[in-house]
């Protein structure tokens, strides 16, 4: 298979490879092991076949139950599909979460609507969101066969998926500059050449986040700062919040780097 960062999926959204990124210890992430994307519900047969031939074995869906019900992922033979919702946050009812996002967007109307620091902080600190990312890591540990891939995705493949990618690449020893480059690639892939319409979540405030035209490094860096402030660094976060032992982290690096 040709090694390419952006996968040639015509009917999908924001399909990308994490293979080839260097790690701090001189290794690189294996190709055909880690994929990220937006929603899959519109995938045509030829694109599904491409993914199957590429080695897809697990699909981890980070969307809400509402999103999954209204735009389910297509069933693919020999692919295990896991519902793993990051939203809703555990300490916010749907009403209070809506008000929270409303206040966030209105607190400084001169800021770009993509400056979404507080939701990103919640994605790394909230109990429910953490449980979703913990399950994702457990799936990664199960994916132990060569050239078999895990794909994780949300609606646009940039916010929930962006945080998931940040955590995974951090666990694999990728440096922050490279993580940020991968995160910002959503801007070019999603909006560089065409207008993208994403699905709805039944929460207007979260829809606004999903449909924001750009991801913003300020958001990702606030999530990183939240981890450092509360946990003292990424390694302790992985140990404590993600419940990954040092042996688990070493196994992830064995499975996904070379």
Automatic annotation (TrEMBL):
Highest taxon listed in the record's lineage: Bacteria
Classification via Pfam families: Y_phosphatase3
InterPro entries linked to this entry: Prot-tyrosine_phosphatase-like, Tyr/Ser_Pase_IphP-type, Tyr_Pase_AS, Tyr_Pase_dom
Residue ranges of coiled coil: none
Domain annotation Tyrosine specific protein phosphatases: ranges: 131-163
Membrane-spanning residues: none
Molecular function GO terms recorded: phosphoprotein phosphatase activity
Entry similarity comment: Belongs to the protein-tyrosine phosphatase family.
Protein name: Protein-tyrosine-phosphatase
Species this protein is from: Pediococcus parvulus
Lineage, uppermost ranks: Bacteria, Bacillati, Bacillota, Bacilli, Lactobacillales
């Amino acid at each position: 298979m040709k090694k390419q960062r952006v996968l040639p999926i015509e009917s999908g959204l924001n399909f990308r490879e994490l293979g080839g990124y260097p790690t701090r210890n001189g290794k690189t992430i294996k190709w055909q092991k880690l994929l990220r994307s937006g929603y899959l519900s519109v995938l045509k047969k030829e694109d599904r076949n491409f993914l199957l031939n590429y080695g897809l074995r697990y699909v981890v869906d980070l969307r809400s139950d509402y999103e999954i019900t209204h735009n389910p992922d297509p069933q693919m033979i020999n692919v295990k599909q896991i519902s793993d919702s990051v939203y809703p946050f555990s300490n916010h009812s749907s009403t209070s979460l809506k008000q929270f996002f409303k206040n966030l967007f209105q607190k400084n109307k001169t800021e770009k609507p993509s400056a979404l620091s507080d939701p990103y902080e919640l994605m790394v600190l909230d109990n429910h969101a953490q449980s979703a990312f913990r399950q994702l890591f457990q799936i990664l540990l199960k994916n132990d066969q060569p050239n078999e891939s895990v794909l994780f995705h949300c609606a646009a493949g940039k916010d929930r998926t962006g945080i998931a990618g940040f955590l995974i690449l951090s666990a694999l020893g990728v440096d922050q500059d490279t993580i940020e480059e991968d995160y910002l690639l959503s801007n070019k892939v999603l909006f560089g050449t065409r207008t993208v319409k994403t699905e709805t979540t039944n929460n207007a405030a979260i829809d606004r986040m999903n449909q924001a035209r750009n991801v913003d490094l300020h958001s990702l860096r606030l999530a990183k700062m939240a981890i450092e402030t509360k946990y003292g660094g990424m390694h302790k976060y992985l140990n404590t919040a993600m419940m990954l032992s040092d042996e688990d982290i070493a196994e992830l690096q064995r499975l996904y780097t070379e």
